[in-house]
Amino acid sequence: MKVTVVGAGAVGASCAEYIAMKNFCSEVVLVDIKEGFAEGKAMDLMQTASLNGFDTKITGTTGDYSKTAGSHVAVITSGIPRKPGMTREELIGINAGIVKEVTENLVKHSPEVIIIVVSNPMDTMAYLVHKTSGLPKHKIIGMGGALDSARFQYRLAEALEAPISDVNGMVIAAHSDTGMLPLLSKATRNGVPVTEFLDEEKQKYVIEETKVGGATLTKLLGTSAWYAPGAAVSVMVQAIACDQKKMIPCSLMLEGEYGQNDICLGVPAIIGKNGVESIVNVTLTAEEQLKFAEAANAVREVNGDLKF
Ligand SMILES: NC(=O)c1ccc[n+]([C@@H]2O[C@H](COP(=O)([O-])OP(=O)(O)OC[C@H]3O[C@@H](n4cnc5c(N)ncnc54)[C@H](O)[C@@H]3O)[C@@H](O)[C@H]2O)c1
Ligand SMILES: O=C(O)C[C@H](O)C(=O)O
């Protein structure tokens, strides 16, 4: 399995590192626009191979997409991250042009590729990749829900004073500060609904902290997060590489599912060797349906700023 990661910055390098550490891929190619940067990151990572015990070959290139030819999966992390106080949506002006150009280069050299979109505003960038790549819809997957769900589980474990391995929960809808929908009604501690353990105040705390998870880290770090984003991508790439048929919330093109059309939004999906094997239809409460629809309206407005 050959994987390309475009953008060798914080998230791209973290993706490459986690993918290599899990040792399920033969080759990872890092691509960046900054001269020598991807080559340097690749060499540094390769010098961890004997220490960390992996055999994945990591190489880097400054913009030579012929080196990415024949990739099974490509991850797009190229573009600028937000600074404290910004929203992800404010990145559209710069990132849309980058994501479009990168998509064209990837598809030219790997026409069968499955693309995982990470650059923000992610739901809109995933939509842009659908509109510009010519790839079938099961081959374009936005990464947001896997990360947001991990943050949800972190906050649930904190509120429950439980180990994270006891906790299960999922976040759907938009990958934005206001449009995330943590499904508290379905979250469990070892199969028992968490609502049986948490009072309303704690429930509200978990939901609000989950939704601003990215903003909280951006304020602390001065730029956005990379460890958990990289780990989330590696889980998705592994699900494809190992045909795991894992259920992961991802931003996918909807055609009637969850009452939406012509939009990419986070929904649970089965991820396997074909990319999206199917979308899972979960029954939402009336309040959750309303929030999902509101998130869709907000993303649709941002999508309106795209120029193809
Ligand atoms: N979807 C998510 O959950 C999620 C999580 C974290 C970050 N992000 C987003 O991922 C993106 C990257 O974040 P980061 O922290 O790694 O930023 P970064 O600045 O560390 O890295 C971005 C890299 O992209 C490169 N780049 C820019 N234009 C390029 C081009 N045309 N071709 C190839 N490479 C190019 C830059 O040189 C840089 O090295 C941001 O848009 C950020 O908002 C999304
Ligand atoms: O918060 C950001 O801007 C980056 C990313 O989307 C995240 O959730 O960490």
UniProtKB/TrEMBL annotation:
<dbReference type="InterPro" id="IPR001236">
    <property type="entry name" value="Lactate/malate_DH_N"/>
</dbReference>
<dbReference type="Pfam" id="PF02866">
    <property type="entry name" value="Ldh_1_C"/>
</dbReference>
<dbReference type="InterPro" id="IPR022383">
    <property type="entry name" value="Lactate/malate_DH_C"/>
</dbReference>
<keyword id="KW-0520">NAD</keyword>
<keyword id="KW-0816">Tricarboxylic acid cycle</keyword>
<dbReference type="InterPro" id="IPR001557">
    <property type="entry name" value="L-lactate/malate_DH"/>
</dbReference>
<comment type="similarity">
    <text>Belongs to the LDH/MDH superfamily.</text>
</comment>
<dbReference type="InterPro" id="IPR036291">
    <property type="entry name" value="NAD(P)-bd_dom_sf"/>
</dbReference>
<keyword id="KW-0560">Oxidoreductase</keyword>
<dbReference type="InterPro" id="IPR011275">
    <property type="entry name" value="Malate_DH_type3"/>
</dbReference>
<protein>
    <submittedName>
        <fullName>Malate dehydrogenase</fullName>
    </submittedName>
</protein>
<feature type="domain" description="Lactate/malate dehydrogenase N-terminal">
    <location>
        <begin position="1"/>
        <end position="142"/>
    </location>
</feature>
<dbReference type="InterPro" id="IPR015955">
    <property type="entry name" value="Lactate_DH/Glyco_Ohase_4_C"/>
</dbReference>
<feature type="domain" description="Lactate/malate dehydrogenase C-terminal">
    <location>
        <begin position="147"/>
        <end position="298"/>
    </location>
</feature>
<dbReference type="Pfam" id="PF00056">
    <property type="entry name" value="Ldh_1_N"/>
</dbReference>
